[in-house]
């Protein structure tokens, strides 16, 4: 995960020097504090939970859990931001969830036994 961010930064920084006007950020003190809290605390919590999930469920399951992120985002947007869900989004969520179910060997072996 770190390598992805490092490579993305290495590619985006030169482009931003060419295309952007300046790097001025007019942040208040409280905004800076919140950015530091988000960057250190929340990223650390997510990293710890990600590693715990790898230990408990394995790397394969953990990699599949990343596919649920857009589904959760759409559901949260629907309930909290009152965003509309199109039929394409619902079909996409169904495809993602079915793919995750079918990729789990335990569920497949249970279905075959019945």
TrEMBL record:
**Transmembrane segments in this chain: where?**
30-50, 59-81, 87-104
Subcellular location, record wording:
Endomembrane system
* Keywords of this entry: Membrane, Transmembrane, Transmembrane helix
Gene Ontology CC, one term: membrane
Domain EamA, by residue range, is: 5-102
Q: Which InterPro entries match?
A: AA-Vitamin_Transporters, EamA_dom, EmrE-like
Membrane topology term: Multi-pass membrane protein
Pfam families, alphabetically?
EamA
- Residues annotated as coiled-coil are none
Q: Which Gene3D superfamilies match?
A: 1.10.3730.20
Family per record: Belongs to the EamA transporter family.
List the protein's name.
Answer: EamA domain-containing protein
Q: Which species is this UniProt entry from?
A: Peribacillus butanolivorans
